[in-house]
Structure formats: structure tokens, C-alpha cells
Amino acid sequence: DFLAGRVSWLAMTAPESIERTKLALEELEKTGAIQPFEKLYVRKDGSRVPVLVGVAGFDGEHDLMVAFVLDLSERKRAEAEARESERRYRETQSELAHANRVATMGQLTASIAHEVSQPITAAITNAHAALRWLGAQSPNLDEANQALRRILDNGNRAAQVIGRIR
């Protein structure tokens, strides 16, 4: 079809490749060659084919030339697959980093809860002991006083833990 003149480069060229093809034809007129460039051809069924096109003349003769058209479909498909694979890899890395941050936050939260709950639990235990000492038939003020001092110490310890966390 091409040799018979029923099909031309421009007729087979996708609309978005027309300008570049016209520049290539001007280059051919001026220099007798076309540096290889990529463009899209349109098949009879309407599908598009990415190609690499190049032309070289023989010693300035415009009648004798060699041209090539290489189908780049497989290369373009492989490039698209590589880009998709890279996208999935980055997405997986991002998800993994997020999961790691969540796990770290969980561990940090558990550690904080443990560090804060220890002095609070001790303060509650000492408060119960102080109440028992004061509520006895003969209140033991020394023991109650010691329990209250331990409550103060436990409260200060909890405050220090919270201060370090801040």
C-alpha cells in the first residue's frame, strides 16, 4: 500500500505526531536524512503503534535512501510495566513505613502507660494503707504518715515520668 501510493506517512501518522513528522520531512529535504525519532502510527483498525523512524540518503542523492521503522510496542509495554512495578514498590514501601510507625507508636504507648501506671498504682495502694492505719481502733499515725509520704513520692515520680515524656 505504501509503495503503491495508497498510504502515506502523514495518513498513517497519529494527529499528535503530525507536527514532528512534518519537521522530519523538512529535515529530509534539507539534509537528505532524518535523525531517528519516535512517533505514533495508526493501524487500519484504529489502534496506535509507537515506532522509531529514521532515514538516511546515499551521498546526497535524494532518490536513493534507506529508511527504517521499528515497532516499539514491546519496549513501551515493558517501560509501562516497569513504571507500574516501581509505583507498586513505592506504595508497598510507604505502607510498610506506615505500619512500622504505627507499631512503634503502639510500643511507645504501652511503655508510657506502664511507666505512668506504676507510681499511680503505688499511690492508690499507699492511700488504702493510710486509710486502714487511720481507721484502726487505735490509729497508727506514724504508719499513716509514712504511707502519705510514699503517696507524695509516687505522685512526684508520676509527674517526672510525664515531664520526661513531654
Write up this protein.
The protein is α+β, with helices and mostly antiparallel strands and 166 residues long. The protein is built from 4 helices and 3 strands, in the order H-H-E-E-E-H-H. It has a 3-stranded antiparallel β-sheet with strand order 1-2-3. Strand 1 and strand 2 form a beta hairpin. It starts with 8 loop residues before the first helix and ends with a helix. The mean pLDDT is 89.
Ranges where pLDDT stays below 50 over 5 or more residues in a row are: none
Shape: rod-shaped
Biggest sheet strand order reads 1-2-3
Number of DSSP helices? 4
DSSP E strands, number: 3
Query: What distance lies between the first and last C-alpha atoms, to the nearest angstrom?
Result: 79 Å
Q: Mean pLDDT, as a whole number?
A: 89
| Helix share bin | 55-70%
Care to give the gist of this entry?
The chain is an alpha+beta fold and 166 residues long. It has helices spanning 9-12, 18-31, 73-135, 141-165, and strands at 33-42, 48-58, 61-71. The longest helix has 63 residues, at 73-135.
Outline the secondary-structure elements.
Elements: H1 9-12, H2 18-31, E1 33-42, E2 48-58, E3 61-71, H3 73-135, H4 141-165
Antiparallel strand pairs: 1-2, 2-3
Helix pairs in contact: 3-4
Name some characteristics of this structure.
166 residues, alpha+beta, three-stranded antiparallel sheet, 4 helices, 19% strand
